[in-house]
Design goal:
The structure holds two protein chains of two kinds. By secondary structure, chain A is α/β, with parallel strands linked by helices. Chain A contains 16 helices and 16 strands. Chain A has an eight-stranded mixed sheet, sandwiched between helices. In chain A, strands 1-8 form a two-stranded antiparallel ribbon. The two termini of chain A are 47 Å apart. Chain B folds into three domains: 177 residues, FAD/NAD(P)-binding domain (3-Layer(bba) Sandwich); 126 residues, FAD/NAD(P)-binding domain; 87 residues, 2-Layer Sandwich (Enolase-like, domain 1). Chain B is built from ten helices and 24 strands. In chain B, strands 1, 2, 3, 4, 5, 6 and 17 form a seven-stranded mixed sheet that branches. Chain B has a five-stranded antiparallel sheet with strand order 20-21-24-23-22, sandwiched between helices. In chain B, strand 12 and strand 13 form a beta hairpin. The longest helix of chain B is centred in the C-terminal third of the chain and has 16 residues. The termini of chain B are far apart. The relative contact order of chain B is 0.12. Classes of the chains: A alpha/beta, B alpha/beta. Chains A and B meet through strand 2, strand 3, helix 2 and helix 3 of A and helix 1, helix 7, strand 20, strand 21 and helix 8 of B. The complex binds flavin-adenine dinucleotide (FAD) and iron/sulfur cluster (SF4) (2 copies). The site of flavin-adenine dinucleotide (FAD) has 35 residues of chain B, from helix 1, helix 2, helix 5 and helix 7. One iron/sulfur cluster binds next to helix 1 of chain A.
């Protein structure tokens, strides 16, 4: 398998051209205050029309550490090479003959002449700890380290069988494969009715769809059964993770009483909810997690109704009120965040009840193209339609991916068919609901900060 | 008889890029490389630095044995291609053996031209194209007091500088009126000339050597005006030309090089050519040209490899653009594109005597960049080449571009990146 690498990402919309990254780089790399020597160069964008350019009218020239680097291919001295372990294009000063051919090869001005030394210079990502990134005050520069997940997870065993019958582009399949990979083989899995067993987790013809023990509780008793199984294992002295992968219907409606009971008793289980905002497996009926205005087969769009007329229940906030060991919301559009939370939930499930609520767009029920799942998931977060946070009894609630400059919720709603019929008033209702929800969660977060 | 899916003749830039491109698309097909050179791959471009001692022969190799093992390449050095039978899909090697191929790439580069000067066969002279040439020249340079370099192209000039620095008295003889013509304009060439003169070199431009005689320490050159110059070291660097004897009887069309289309295909089926041996479309002329430079060899090698492997991502060759970088006595010169001013276009020039910065930029009638040349004025040649190849309209930015080619070039490219 190939190797993934960390990278420095630039968001031009956030850059105001302050140049602090260049100051940091010149200082760290050359002990100089001359920003022309910086290996990251902020330039005005070609689209900038007035002088000086406004925020958002900047671009950068920086080595992209290409996978298929042209500078390397044109170097006659073998002085440049892609480092297979770090992904960085390494420059060997002792081999370089200063011919400048690499500056012909690169179309991005990623390697250039440092007139001071008379030699070429390029970004080496500061050995994986870029000095420019923390110097950026606006968040325009980010160091993306998600590659770690790809590299690590790739070597873990996928504990679901191949060939599950999920819909094309299904986010739930992606999520559950990742989650079970992380939680590992010493797991007993409960998958109540819903898409997860629907696509085959409990198997066919006497074989399971997983490589770990799996059972199929009722919608109503998942948490109770799983708690019992876990206690039995504890009684015989075996350390296993008891994990549920349940849909939002199974958790927030008919299964809620056993969920609430297990949480209140502090059962040592990891309960993951895959929230696709409805009973999608059985024909797309509404659940208490279906948002206001959404079309489902039981909240149709016609002469009298215009989609669901009630707001969604905020289940993760309710779980906080059980003072669980750990409660968090997550999204597959933010894998690093998701993995971080999986790690914490797993650890917490050894002490008490761990609850992980993952928003999971549904191509079939929400009506969008199968290639757009992560896009939709990301827009949900970027518009604050859903918020990503975590809670522990000790430190309270904290946002893990705060969005301070959200997209209008209409951008999110437009990304799918189930909201196509909305009137402007309905969109406004939803926008207000987003604001209210956010205020509510923020209040709790502020209390945590006061402690 | 050895059989292979891909047979590649040559082991330099064009060949190495073709291997990369083939392996990107076809992980398994058998690749065999036959090369005339006895060594592992290296670049001719690095040789002046082997001559000067800046680099050493052991440190210039571009690939190690692991690379070939890892990429499942059967690498055969000291093994020259001697003939091709395209109908039978067979290649004959210099040792008389035969290899059957499915697809063949000719990446055999070019060799120094040795002009037919009367007497040249009776004197000892040097050329610089292979590692062995470089080692031999370096050894000879150590004892040289009177060196003559024939030809003032970049290879000759670089060698002349090395000889000057090694303490020899150096004379450069060049047929045309100007040094480095074809790379730099008169002004830039004048700066180069001054630097050489200032460092004690003698320059005889506008002169031809009409005869060579063995002399007391080496050779004696006779110029067309009757002057004679003694040389204990003679370097012939008047240009390069592909050696294509192996094509005899193959029916593969050639002019000055092997004619290829925009996917580097030759006139016969299942044979491609790339690099210095190929004659491909020129970006400015639209007709087949020789553009014997390293970056173009890699581009062509890549395209040929993709075409041979059937990679659907192949984009046709945009046409060759001249691109050169050159250092002389601590200064650098960069040339990108065509020096000629197109009809209706214009050239802009600036020179700052104090800093020695010189810049000339050429635009066509639609304000698009067609060439840019600088001495001691650094700009990103790769970005400039993109602006030319993408025929970018500089429009209102042209003045700013000329004042600050580095910053403005990056700024323009930033728009094209996204
Ligand atoms: C001294 C010097 C300096 C240079 N400086 C620059 C520079 O600054 N910038 C620049 O852009 N370019 C420069 N060049 C040119 C550049 O090196 C070439 O354009 C480039 O190497 C071309 O690559 P290629 O793969 O086409 O051929 P080459 O590099 O010429 O390689 C040809 C290969 O084919 C092999 N071969 C030849 N005949 C046969 C045969 N019959 N059978 C099998 N194998 C054969 C050879 O052994 C060799 O491996 C320089 C060249 C020289 C000599
Ligand atoms: S300047 Fe150095 S790194 Fe760049 S191509 Fe030349 S030898 Fe290689
Ligand atoms: S990562 Fe380091 S070397 Fe690269 S641009 Fe940032 S500060 Fe400079």
């Amino acid at each position: 398998m190939g190797q993934a690498y960390s990278t420095i990402a630039f968001d031009p919309a956030k850059c105001d051209g302050c140049g602090k990254c260049m100051t940091a780089c010149a200082s760290v790399k050359f002990d100089s205050t001359d920003t022309t020597r910086s290996l990251i160069q902020i330039v005005r964008s070609g689209g900038a029309s007035i002088e000086p350019p406004r925020p958002g009218e900047f671009e950068l020239a920086l080595c992209r550490q290409c996978a298929d680097p042209k500078c390397v291919t044109v170097c006659p001295a073998g002085a440049l090479g892609k480092n297979g372990a770090t992904g960085v294009i390494d420059w060997d000063a002792s081999k370089c003959v200063d011919c400048l051919l690499c500056t012909i090869g690169c179309s991005y001005a990623g390697i250039a002449l440092d007139e001071h030394s008379g030699r070429v210079s390029k970004c080496d990502t500061c050995d994986g700890k870029p000095a420019c990134v923390p110097a950026c005050p606006t968040g325009a520069l980010r160091h993306i380290t998600t590659a770690r997940i790809y590299n690590e997870v790739g070597s873990w065993e996928d504990l679901f069988a191949p060939g599950l019958a999920g819909c094309q582009g299904c986010n739930t399949e992606l999520l559950m494969r990742h989650a079970l990979r992380r939680v590992g083989p010493d797991t007993v899995l409960a998958t109540p009715p819903g898409c997860v067993p629907g696509m085959g987790s409990v198997g066919f013809n006497g074989t399971t769809g997983t490589k770990v023990p799996v059972f199929h509780p009722l919608l109503t008793n998942t948490a109770a059964m799983l708690a019992g199984v876990k206690r039995q294992y504890e009684r015989v002295g075996r350390k296993v993770t008891a994990m549920a992968i349940a849909g939002d219907g199974g958790a927030s409606d008919v299964g809620f009483q056993s969920l609430s009971g297990a949480a209140e008793r502090g059962e040592r289980i990891l309960f993951m909810v895959v929230d696709n905002e409805g009973y999608m497996n059985t024909g797309m009926q509404r659940s208490s997690c279906t948002p206001y205005g959404a079309w489902t087969s039981t909240t149709p769009v016609g002469e009298h109704t215009r989609g669901k007329s009630q707001d969604a229940k905020n289940l993760p906030m309710i779980m906080i009120n059980h003072r669980c060991e750990y409660v968090a919301t997550a999204s597959t559009a933010y894998m690093e965040d998701l993995y971080d939370k999986l790690d914490k939930a797993l650890a917490a499930s050894e002490r008490g009840f761990a609850y992980l609520h993952v928003y999971s767009p549904c191509t079939t029920g929400w009506r969008f193209q199968s290639a757009l799942n992560i896009e939709v998931a990301r827009k949900a977060v970027e518009s604050n339609f859903v918020t990503l946070w975590e809670y522990t009894p000790e430190s309270g609630l904290h946002f893990t991916r705060p969005v301070n400059d959200p997209l209008p919720v209409a951008d999110y709603l437009k990304a799918m068919g189930r909201f196509r019929h909305l009137s402007p008033e309905q969109v406004e209702h939803i926008q207000n609901k987003v604001a209210e929800n956010l205020r509510f969660v923020r209040k709790i977060a502020e209390q945590a900060d006061e402690r | 008889m050895h059989t292979t899916d891909y047979l590649i003749a040559g082991s330099s830039h064009a060949a190495l890029e073709a291997i990369n491109a083939i392996r990107m698309h076809d992980g398994e097909g058998a690749i065999t490389v036959v090369t005339r050179d006895p060594h592992r791959p290296y670049s001719p471009t690095v040789l002046p630095y082997v001559v000067s001692g800046r680099s050493t022969p052991e440190r210039v190799y571009l690939r190690d044995d692991d690379f070939f093992a890892h990429n499942k390449v059967d690498y055969r050095s000291g093994c020259a291609l001697a003939g091709i039978d395209p109908a039978a899909h067979q290649a004959r090697l210099a040792d008389g053996s035969t290899i059957a191929y499915r697809k063949l790439l000719l990446a055999t580069g070019a060799s120094p031209v040795v002009p037919p000067i009367p007497g040249i066969d009776r004197v000892d002279y040097h050329v610089l194209r292979t590692l062995d040439d470089a080692t031999r020249l370096r050894a000879a340079m150590a004892g040289s007091k009177n060196a003559v370099v024939l030809g003032a192209g970049l290879v000759g000039m670089h060698a002349a500088e090395n000889l000057v620095k090694a303490g020899a008295s150096v004379t450069i003889v060049e047929m045309s009126k100007q040094l480095t013509s074809g790379y730099f304009d008169e002004v830039a060439a004048g700066m180069i000339e001054q630097a050489f003169l200032g460092n004690g070199a003698k320059i005889r431009t506008g002169h031809r050597v009409v005869g060579l005689e063995p002399g007391p320490d080496g050779a004696t050159l006779q110029l067309d005006n009757g002057d004679t110059i003694p040389a204990d070291l003679l370097l012939v660097a008047v240009g390069v030309r592909p050696e294509l004897g192996y094509l005899d009887g193959s029916g593969i069309a050639t002019e000055r090089g092997i004619l290829v289309d925009d996917s580097m295909r030759t006139s016969v089926d299942d044979v491609w050519a790339a690099g210095d041996c190929a004659q491909a479309r020129g970006f400015f002329t639209g007709t087949p040209v020789m553009n014997a430079i390293l970056p173009d060899a890699t581009v062509q090698g890549r395209i040929a490899g993709m075409a041979m492997a059937g990679d659907p991502g192949l984009k046709p060759y945009p046409g060759g653009v001249p691109l050169n970088t050159y250092h002389f006595f601590g200064r650098h010169a960069i040339s990108v594109g065509s020096a000629a001013v197109p009809e209706g276009g214009r050239a802009q020039v600036r020179f700052d005597a104090a800093s020695g910065r010189y810049l000339r930029a050429v635009f066509d009638r639609d304000e698009r960049l067609t060439g840019i040349f600088g001495v001691n004025e650094f700009f990103d040649a790769g970005v400039m080449a993109q602006l030319i190849v993408r025929r970018t309209d500089l429009g209102p930015l042209r003045e700013r571009f000329f004042a600050q080619p580095l910053a403005t070039g990056r700024e323009l490219m930033s728009q094209l990146w996204r």
